[in-house]
Amino acid sequence: TALLTKLLQNALVVEKQPTMSSLTHRPCILKLTVGFTVTLRFLVNLPLFKCLLKVKPVFDKDVEEVKTMKGFRQFVFSENTSKLLDVCTPNGGLVAEFGHLSIKKGSKSRVNGSNESPIGVTEELHMIKFVTTLQLAGLECHIEASSLPVVVVCSTAQVPSAWASVMWYSLLSATQPTSLSAFVEPPPLPWEQLSQALSWQFLSAGDRELNQNQLDELKLKVVDDPDDLVHWNKFAKSDGPWIWINGILDLIQKHLKEIWRDGCVMGFVNKDKTRQLLQSKQSGNFLLRFSESNREGAITFSWVERSNGEVNVYAVKPYTKKDLSAMSLPNLIYHYSLRAQQRKTVNPLVYLYPDIPKDTAFGPYYTKQEISPINKDGYVNRQLISVSDCCTPPPSPPGETQMDVEDPLQAPLSVPSEELLQEWFPDVLDTTLSTSLPPIEQMF
Amino acid sequence: TALLTKLLQNALVVEKQPTMSSLTHRPCILKLTVGFTVTLRFLVNLPLFKCLLKVKPVFDKDVEEVKTMKGFRQFVFSENTSKLLDVCTPNGGLVAEFGHLSIKKGSKSRVNGSNESPIGVTEELHMIKFVTTLQLAGLECHIEASSLPVVVVCSTAQVPSAWASVMWYSLLSATQPTSLSAFVEPPPLPWEQLSQALSWQFLSAGDRELNQNQLDELKLKVVDDPDDLVHWNKFAKSDGPWIWINGILDLIQKHLKEIWRDGCVMGFVNKDKTRQLLQSKQSGNFLLRFSESNREGAITFSWVERSNGEVNVYAVKPYTKKDLSAMSLPNLIYHYSLRAQQRKTVNPLVYLYPDIPKDTAFGPYYTKQEISPINKDGYVNRQLISVSDCCTPPPSPPGETQMDVEDPLQAPLSVPSEELLQEWFPDVLDTTLSTSLPPIEQMF
DNA sequence: ACAGTTTCCCGTAAATGC
DNA sequence: TGCATTTACGGGAAACTG
Asked: Are strands A189-190 and A229-230 parallel, antiparallel or unpaired?
């Protein structure tokens, strides 16, 4: 029966832990007072146990840090109704679903009074345990199951940082024993390992991982160490790359899901490489890249213009979440206009790099808008378009509107290697070569 | 001393009752669990009383309806700390400020169980009383002060309805005794009286009342009674005009404050009158009017175009709050473009009716944007503009894009009277005649 | 099924604490 | 004073409840 006891002790597992709104609160991040759900599965599937076990969730049970770490916050489950319990069979397994769980600040709130904590609140790792006692044949057996570590936040503004902690912890624990105090002295991670996880983030946010070129580019922003190690404080702190990456993930999830998924967004390309790539192509080639400076996530397009021997590469002021909530990027590209003299306009975006007609690449995403100039109510239809003023042709008129701005994209040119060109965007190329695309819809 | 007692009984008044966020929760509307502040003033300003009186707020004290009206909801102040008290002198008067008040559902929540109430929750009128006892020379004197009726809501979506109730009640009580059960059988209001109140709403939301033309137009939407009486149910229910008016008030407050204040928005003009007005003017005249169909508040511009003998009046699809949050209406007017063949564009908006050059009227509100085509970061600047496709010149090409849509604005023409023209917009006319306006800023 | 009503909760802004 | 953390609450949407 000692064996049985042991078996039973490992029989209860936390199946999953989606928060109620799993899109924004990614799993393992709990917001104070906001409801979440946990499902438990009892691995020993004997009908015998049905409705026999009372399971109780306990927050931070036996967690050392709660008692010893200065400033460690304390939480408890909100409702004593948290004694929801019993094991029943919906279909097949013995499971218990804890709905409407939520936590609040504990009575003491913080260990040892004030918060002279060695770590930030989003680095504090907590844990939920589910306990039950099985009485069987005069034998009393205590069974516990614990969740992966969770981070508790009080505002959605803390979610990005919290998410970094969860990710870092899980990577650490894959290769070494890692405690809930991991962030008191957080070990570094090899880029090889971190980059994998970052790529998964893009898979999760936008259904597509990062390709090798994107990873290489990202590495330049993240790795600052001869041994390719990434240090937590450099990575996740307010001026580190994570906040920037997270902004881009957000942008993808909310506004670029389709075109990211289908590989239309090169995204991580620096200005030099952008120029290299575009300069080798005919006028009108453009590509999409994320802003390198904007911390909240922004995307721009760069395009090349050739006229009488001159080659210029431009980039529009990046579009943020707010901009894109007024119009989608494909529509925006479709309608983008440069305005020259006499209010004559032209769209400089012709080919998605490399040489893919833009309507071939973006046609599937254009939003069908009202087609007729006047709609049924008698109102004149309208659409938003993004417009820039021409600066090159004609040669700048005198005056302050055409100052000696230093445009990084207009620095000295160089010829890109053919290999470099082939490396980029193989799949978009594939699309062009192998697929016959649906006809482009007439927009107006 | 009986006189003194009487005097003291009337000595306590509720000074004002701003909610903590008075912009959205207009006074007299309380949202459950959301904090608000009430200031009490003690009219008998004797230093004698300083810090001698304990004042206690009580919700719905002595309100009959709480006991008798089926479905009437019950509320209590959230914190027992609501015994905040004392009278002190900040400067001059004896006042007590109750900060951080908030209410929650009472224990019984609803009178007589279920909610078979004869009135909607936003028609339920409640009241806050402040009570204190003064012991003076062996004499015990009970003093009370009560607020104006308040409506309790649980969601901001109920605020517009609640506001209608508050307004209606206050108008009713100006001319007749009105109880908290007023909405069980709400008396009608004379248009004369209601219109006054509506005009004040516009004053409050946008610093400018309605003029006679606007009131006349509004009357057509609101009054449906030979005696010019307005009936509550027709006015305030979901398909009544109040919701529509409230949407417009919201639009003004959030997006049109300046131009409404300065009289640039004619606003309430029907399509026929719009056509009459514009047809008498030169090509390029336009005016701003609110959508008559959109319930959430929307604004459009109508303009006149003359070409070879033909006169056409058009109106763009109305702009909603969401549209205007992407760009302001003055900027939108400045940049609005009709796109003809060859991507050549023209702005059909030239004169704000009557014949005021648009930059004279709207120049002060244009947002100065980045002027140079390329800004300091090297990015090409851009702006959003609203664009429509030309439909008149040239004569419609064959095909479905130019169907026989029935445009109410293109119905048979008639000549407007000169008087009609003079009536409208006297102040804008004045402006043109009497003021030398600031120079128009160059936008790009 | 449905409408009136309430709850939920993100995301931003403001307040608070140290 | 500045930064880290928490609270407040509008607004949209889902959930409730008879």
From this structure: antiparallel
